[in-house]
C-alpha cells in the first residue's frame, strides 16, 4: 500500500535545496510520480507528486520535510491525493497539446491575460508558461529588444479555427504577435527554411529601386502595392512593372545590390539555423542578380528567382524563362523538400506578399512576416512586431542558446 502526497516548496533559491530534499525522500523509499521546478528572480517554486510507502509512514516523512524546509528558510505545503484522482490524472495523458507563443518588444500583464482568457474560453488548460527571451535592462533604451513567452496548452479544441481567430484578434488590438502550433515532433525537427527576398529578407522592393533609377518610381510603386495586396494578378503586374524598366543601364544593378537594407534579425536567424544544420534558401519573385548576392553574403544553399534579360548592357523589360509567381514558388518548394528527402512538415517558409501564400500554406511552418493584412489573415503564423530572428522563438530556441 502507499499514500500519494502533493508537495509544494517555495522560497529563496540557493544551491543544494533540491538535492537536500530529495535525499531525505530517498531514505524513506519515496517514489517521484511527477516533478516541476522553476526559479524566477532567485525565488524557487518546486512541486513534487510523491508516492510514500505505507511502511515509511507519510506522517513521519512530512514531519521531517517540515523541519528540514524550516531550517532551509523555505515554505512548504502538503496536499493528499486520492488514488482515484491520481488515476484520472494519468488517464488524461494523450490529449492534444499545443504551444502558444506570445511575442513583442515588451509584454504586459494585459497581453498574457488576453491569451489566457482565450485558452480558458475554448476549454483548454495551461500546463506551463516559459520565457524564451533574455533579460533586458530597464535603465537603457534597447530599440531591438525582444520578449517571448510560451504557453504549453493541453486539451482538445472543439473549434481550432475559432481558437486561431480569437488569438489573431489579440494581435489586431495589441502590439504583440501570437503563434499557435501543435506540440509535435515536427516542431523540433525542421530542416529547411526559405525566404521571399523583397520586403522580407531585405527591407525594400528591388523592382522599386530599379524603377527609381529608371525614373518611373511612382508608376511601379503603385503597381507593386496593388500586387502585394492581392488586387492584381502577380504575373500581369510583374510584366507591367518590368516593361517600364526597358532600356535601363545594367550598370546600376551593382550599386543597388551593395546598398540593399538587410532586415533586422536576418543574420542572427540564418547563422543560428545554419549552425543547427538547416538548409537555407531564397524563393523570390524578384531577381536572381540580387538574390545571388545575398546568397554569397549569407552562404545560402539555394536560390530561385527571375533572371533579368540584359542585352548590350541594357534591360530589355523582360525576364529569361518562366516567371516565379506564387504557384511557381510552391512548386519549387516541393522540389527542394523532395531533393533533400524531407517532408513539407519539416519546411519553414517566410514571406510578406499575396504571392507568398501558396508556399506558406504548404510549409510545416509558414510565417507571414510584416505582411499586408490579407496575407497576415490567411497565413497560419505571422510576425509583425519583431525582426526575422523572432522565428527562432517559434522553434522553441531560447536567447541564451544563440551566440
Task: Please identify the top-level CATH class of the largest domain.
Answer: Alpha Beta
CATH homologous group name of the largest domain? HAD superfamily/HAD-like
Briefly note the CATH topology name of the largest domain: Rossmann fold
Distance between the termini: 51 Å
Number of strands: 15
- Derived from helix and strand composition plus strand pairing, the structural class reads alpha/beta
Count of helical regions? 15
Strand content: 25-35%
**Tally of individual domains:** 3
Backbone shape = elongated
Regions with little confidence, pLDDT below 50 for 5+ residues: none
**What string gives the helices and strands in order?**
EHEEHEHEHEEHEEHHHHHEHEEHEHEHEH
Question: What's the helical proportion of residues?
Answer: 25-40%
Radius of gyration: 27 Å
CATH architecture of the largest domain: 3-Layer(aba) Sandwich
The strands making up the biggest β-sheet line up spatially as 12-11-10-9-13-14-15
Mean pLDDT: 93
Largest sheet: 7 strands, mixed
Amino acid at each position: 500500500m502507499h499514500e500519494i502526497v502533493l508537495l509544494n516548496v517555495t522560497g529563496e533559491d540557493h544551491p543544494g535545496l533540491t538535492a537536500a530534499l530529495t535525499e531525505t525522500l530517498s531514505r524513506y523509499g519515496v517514489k517521484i510520480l511527477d516533478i516541476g521546478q522553476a526559479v524566477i528572480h532567485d525565488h524557487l517554486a518546486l512541486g513534487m507528486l510523491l508516492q510514500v510507502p505505507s511502511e515509511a509512514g507519510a506522517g513521519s516523512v512530512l514531519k521531517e520535510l517540515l523541519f528540514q524546509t524550516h531550517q532551509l528558510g523555505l515554505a512548504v505545503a502538503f496536499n493528499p491525493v486520492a488514488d482515484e484522482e491520481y488515476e484520472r490524472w494519468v488517464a488524461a495523458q494523450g490529449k492534444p497539446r499545443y504551444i502558444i507563443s506570445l511575442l513583442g518588444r515588451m509584454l504586459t500583464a494585459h497581453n498574457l491575460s488576453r491569451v489566457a482568457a482565450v485558452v480558458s474560453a475554448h476549454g483548454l488548460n495551461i500546463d506551463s508558461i516559459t520565457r524564451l527571451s533574455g533579460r533586458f535592462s530597464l535603465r537603457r533604451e534597447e530599440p531591438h529588444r525582444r520578449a517571448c513567452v510560451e504557453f504549453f496548452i493541453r486539451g482538445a479544441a472543439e473549434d481550432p479555427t475559432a481558437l486561431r481567430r480569437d488569438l489573431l484578434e489579440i494581435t489586431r488590438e495589441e502590439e504583440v504577435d501570437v503563434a499557435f502550433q501543435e506540440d509535435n515532433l515536427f516542431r523540433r525537427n525542421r530542416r529547411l527554411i526559405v525566404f521571399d527576398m523583397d520586403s522580407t529578407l531585405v527591407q525594400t522592393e528591388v523592382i522599386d529601386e530599379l524603377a527609381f533609377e529608371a525614373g518611373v518610381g511612382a508608376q511601379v510603386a503603385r503597381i507593386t502595392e496593388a500586387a502585394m495586396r492581392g488586387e492584381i494578378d502577380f504575373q500581369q503586374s510583374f510584366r507591367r512593372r518590368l516593361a517600364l524598366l526597358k532600356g535601363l543601364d545594367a550598370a546600376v544593378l551593382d550599386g543597388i545590390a551593395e546598398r540593399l537594407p538587410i532586415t533586422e534579425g536576418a543574420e542572427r536567424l540564418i547563422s543560428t539555423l545554419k549552425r543547427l544544420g538547416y538548409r537555407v534558401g531564397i524563393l523570390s519573385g524578384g531577381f536572381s542578380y540580387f538574390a545571388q548576392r545575398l546568397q554569397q553574403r549569407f552562404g545560402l544553399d539555394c536560390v530561385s528567382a527571375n533572371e533579368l534579360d540584359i542585352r548590350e548592357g541594357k534591360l530589355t523589360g523582360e525576364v529569361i524563362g518562366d516567371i516565379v509567381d506564387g504557384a511557381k514558388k510552391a512548386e519549387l518548394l516541393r522540389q527542394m523538400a523532395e531533393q533533400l528527402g524531407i517532408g513539407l512538415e519539416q519546411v519553414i517558409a517566410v514571406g510578406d506578399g499575396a504571392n507568398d501564400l501558396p508556399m506558406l500554406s504548404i510549409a510545416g511552418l509558414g510565417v507571414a512576416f510584416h505582411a499586408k493584412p490579407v496575407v497576415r489573415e490567411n497565413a497560419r503564423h505571422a510576425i509583425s512586431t519583431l525582426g526575422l530572428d523572432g522565428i527562432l522563438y517559434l522553434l522553441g530556441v531560447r536567447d541564451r542558446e544563440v551566440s
